[in-house]
Design brief:
Layout: E1 3-8, H1 10-13, H2 20-31, E2 36-42, H3 46-59, E3 62-66, H4 77-84, E4 89-91, H5 93-105, E5 119-121, E6 125-127, E7 136-141, E8 144-149, H6 153-170, E9 178-186, H7 191-197, E10 207-214, E11 217-226, H8 229-247, E12 251-254, H9 259-270, E13 274-278, H10 284-290, E14 299-304, H11 308-315, H12 319-325, H13 330-344, E15 348-354, E16 369-376, E17 382-387, H14 392-412
Parallel strand pairs: 1-2, 1-3, 3-8, 13-14, 13-15
Antiparallel strand pairs: 4-5, 6-7, 7-8, 9-11, 9-12, 10-11, 15-16, 16-17
Helix pairs in contact: 2-6, 3-4, 9-14
């Protein structure tokens, strides 16, 4: 099946708002095993809209349309699609009553212009909108199905999930080919090195592999297609197993499994508690961990010790270490991690100290230089250093990700390798 997405509005072409509807609709189609072959944004121009609808009908089986269903003069989706396919606009009295009641419930008077939202191209199926005044509609034109939805994201999401998805799922004529995808998350390897490591994978297998950078991660999307659902799923599972074997610890999760969730789950499973000691990351590790529901079971808390005085006072870092080696040093990173374990009573801790920039560097310790340390009771503390010249917040994000990934690797028994440009880490015996 060929699917495409049309988003409508001058504000999209002018860059006044982010077109989040386009990305949501594409992702939702992917989940249904449907690939969007084309995405287009169109101005609120009658002629351009008519042309866009006719072209979409000529090449695609499924067209998802967002926007242009409001009450103002520049909302022209309904009028345009009716003109494109030579259909009259017909009043749907049930929709008009719902729009009127929408205003009554809010103690407001309905403007005359809102009535136009109750008119639909002849032959349409109305899609109710419980959140706003703009109903959507479904329309079949020859082999093509159009699903027109409002542009307000909350309204579009609800309508897509509750009205449109069930229709796509039940219409076999819209699902001539089965497609299934999975998103895999990697960290600790550069894009070119990842491509090199996987260059001989899946040729001629019916499985395709796509790459996407989402700093500081690299995402892999596996897609399998075919006419038999069981075989498609089997091919996808086999391909996923190949990637896990090939990539080892670099592949850390799938779909919505971010590192903080994985770390919290590993702590739960191993019945360990965690504390953090942060300098250059400024509490970012703690923020990410506490965003995970149930983190309070395993995350005790942390210390943001930005000054040398607080590193000594709150974490017990020896002032002599600070004077001799400086705050950004292996010795101080180790002392911070061990101090967090001891003073906060955790089994595990992670510490960060670095020079996020744009100033503060030296020849010995340039901007972008940082240390991450992981301590565990009864074991030797691990300290790793790296240098990455990045904008300040990107550097802080990378440091946070390295810290969380280090915790994950420590708990799983993988080597902790900070060579992001290459090298696939293997488990430590």
């Amino acid at each position: 099946m060929k699917a495409e997405i049309l988003t409508i509005g001058d504000e999209l072409l002018r860059g006044e708002i982010l077109d989040s509807n386009k990305s949501f609709l594409a992702a939702r189609l992917c989940e249904l095993g449907v690939e969007a072959y084309r995405q287009t944004s169109i101005r609120d121009d009658l002629g351009e809209l008519v042309d866009a609808f006719r072209c979409a009908a000529a090449r695609s089986d499924l067209i998802l349309v967002s926007g242009g269903l409001g009450p103002t003069r520049d909302d022209r989706t309904t009028e345009s699609i009716a003109k494109a396919f030579g259909r009259k606009l017909v009043l749907d009295t049930a929709s008009l009553r719902e729009i009127e009641q929408y205003f009554v419930r809010r103690g407001r008077t309905m403007a005359e212009s809102n009535a136009k939202q109750a008119y639909f191209p002849e032959g349409s199926e109305v899609l109710r909108n419980p959140l706003g005044t703009a109903p959507g509609f479904a329309l079949q034109e020859s082999k093509s199905w159009f699903f027109c939805m409002p542009g307000i994201p909350a309204e579009l999401v609800k309508m897509m999930n509750e009205s449109v998805v069930p229709q796509i799922e039940k219409r076999s004529d819209l699902r001539k080919e089965v497609s299934s995808t999975i998103l895999l998350r990697t960290f600790g390897i550069g894009e070119s090195s990842l491509e090199e490591a996987l260059k001989d994978c899946f040729h001629g297998s019916g499985v395709t592999l796509g790459f996407r950078i989402a700093f500081p991660d690299l995402f892999l999307r596996l897609t399998a297609k075919g006419n038999e659902p069981a075989k498609v799923q089997a091919h996808l599972a086999q391909a996923q197993a190949v990637l896990r074997e090939r990539l080892g610890a670099v592949l850390y999760g799938e779909e919505q499994e971010d590192l903080e969730k994985i770390v919290v789950n590993l702590l739960r499973e191993s019945h360990q508690t965690l504390a953090v000691a942060e300098s250059c990351t400024g509490g970012w590790i703690a923020q990410r961990l506490t965003a995970v529901a149930g983190a309070s079971e395993v995350f005790l808390g942390g210390v943001v010790a930005y000054s040398n005085e607080l590193k000594a006072k709150l974490l017990g870092v020896d002032p002599a270490l600070l004077a001799t080696h400086g705050a950004v040093s292996e010795a101080v990173a180790r002392a911070m991690a061990e101090g967090a374990c001891t003073r906060l009573g955790a089994e595990l801790s992670v510490a960060t100290t670095g020079i996020a920039g744009p100033t503060g560097g030296s020849a010995e310790k340039p901007v972008g230089f940082a240390y991450v340390a992981i301590a565990r009771r009864g074991e030797a503390t691990q300290v790793r250093s790296f240098c990455a010249e990045l904008e300040r917040n990107r550097h802080r994000l990378l440091t946070t990700q390295i810290a969380l990934d280090g915790l994950r690797r420590r708990m799983l028994g993988f080597d902790w390798n900070l060579n992001r440009a290459g090298g696939i880490s293997q488990p430590v015996d």
